[in-house]
Amino acid sequence: MTSKSPYQMIISNSGKIRVILACLILTCWAKPVRAQASDTLNRPRLNTFLIATGVTYTVALIALNDVWYSDYPRENFHFFNDSKEWKQMDKIGHYYTAFHLSNASNTAFRWAGVSSTKSALLGSLLGFALMFPIEIMDGFSSEYGASGSDLAANFLGSGFFLGQSLLWNEIRIHPKYSYSESGIATYRPGLLGKNYREKWLKDYNGQIYWLSFDLHALAGTKPKWLNLALGYGVNNMINASGTSTSEFPYASYRQYYLAVDFDFTYIKTKSTFLNTMLFIVNMIHLPAPALEYNKIDKLIFHSLHF
């Protein structure tokens, strides 16, 4: 078995995100309905959702296998420990994706008439299951290897969705994502991205993952749509280990944020399309005032930070 290079690692992860996001857009295409205590199952809707998801996901896995695995020989199933790479930003990405796949699947099950408790359980199981085959494929590839920390992050993401659903019957803490160009990708465009389309997937230096707290649901504050978010990011990561190089002699570090955020789940419409767009937009942290802390610059105020 050959070890993963940083380039191979980021290509593998960005490929996974592309596949998962494609499935996410499909599974969230449903009109939210009110919770019900018992099933009022609409089998045509349920079959439509399951068949469409199964077909799309199968095609996506076949494409992923052809692009990322077909050039490397298969070997016995094995693991690769990447838990210390990229200051765990890729693990948070797995957590984020598993959460939203679970949430989207739950929304679709509710649309099909499944009761709130059953849909939360089924949604979280499906969200985790959609992530699982990619680790299996990694595990049989000589160039990669299954990641136990990826599986743990997937489990925690789906579990975070399920826990909130069972406790509150709604989501009050929303994982979100944002990206702004860091400028660091220009030093290693092959690894961190040559254009914007690649950078928002590959350049961890420009990414921030957030937990947005619904203050109205948690504490009764107003306006309802005004949230408070905690964020985590990294900077000066020129490679997976975060070590400096002759071309980039800067120390890598972690960044922590406290920011204003907005909750689009409080906007209700009768349009399936608009509901889907609001569902997707609520996965993103939009520009807002923020405080940042890091060990280099200490405390920084941003009037607007994405």
Describe how the helices and strands are arranged.
Elements: H1 6-27, H2 43-69, H3 89-111, H4 116-139, H5 148-168, E1 173-179, H6 189-192, H7 196-202, E2 207-213, H8 215-219, E3 226-235, E4 253-262, H9 272-281, E5 288-294, E6 298-305
Antiparallel strand pairs: 1-2, 2-3, 3-4, 4-5, 5-6
Write up this protein.
The chain is globular and about 65 Å long. The protein has helices spanning 6-27, 43-69, 89-111, 116-139, 148-168, 189-192, 196-202, 215-219, 272-281, and strands at residues 173-179, 207-213, 226-235, 253-262, 288-294, 298-305. A hairpin with a 3-residue loop joins β5 and β6. The protein is an alpha+beta fold. The N and C termini lie far apart (40 Å). The model is unreliable at 1-12 and 27-37 (pLDDT under 50). Helix content is 47%, strand content 16%. It has two domains: 1-171, no CATH class; 172-306, no CATH class. α2 (43-69) packs parallel to α4 (116-139), α3 packs across α4 and α4 (116-139) runs antiparallel to α5. The chain contains nine helices and six strands; from the N terminus they run αααααβααβαββαββ. It has a six-stranded antiparallel β-sheet.
List keywords for this structure.
306 residues; alpha+beta; 9 helices
Short description:
This protein has 306 residues and is α+β, with helices and mostly antiparallel strands. The protein has nine helices and six strands; from the N terminus they run H-H-H-H-H-E-H-H-E-H-E-E-H-E-E.
